[in-house]
Amino acid sequence: MTNWIDVGKLEDIPKLGARVVKTEEGDVAVFRTADDEVFALRDRCPHKQGPLSQGIVHGRRVTCPLHNWVIELESGEAVAPDKGCAGVYSVKIEAEKVLLGLKGN
User: Residue 25 and residue 2: Cα distance in Å, rounded?
Assistant: First the structure.
């Protein structure tokens, strides 16, 4: 079961930026692309746990600010030749609100 939490309006997340949501599962970075697509990843790079929310969003990817690993926003997978995966969370927009899906008990 998924618990959906309201994390604010789409406009609250800067284009090509992120917003950090503190959850019981840890920090989650909610990203907004230039095309207003929204994605959510665990806010830790799979390489050295860098804060992905502070990285540079380009297209449907984010570059970690620590060591320039590039992570796919849709899958959380590192772009080759790097290997690893940041956790992916469900996200949707309803009535102009961004909702983040967390695992239910």
Answer: 13
Domain extent at residue 27 = 2-103
3-state secondary structure the chain: CEEEEEEEEHHHCCCCEEEEEEECCEEEEEEECCCCCEEEEECCCCCCCCCHHHCEEECCEEECCCCCCEEECCCCEECCCCCCECCEEEEEEECCEEEEEEECC
Q: Give me the number of domains the chain comprises.
A: 1
pTM of the model: 0.94
Reported as a single tens digit per residue, the pLDDT across 33-48 is 999 999 999 999 999 9
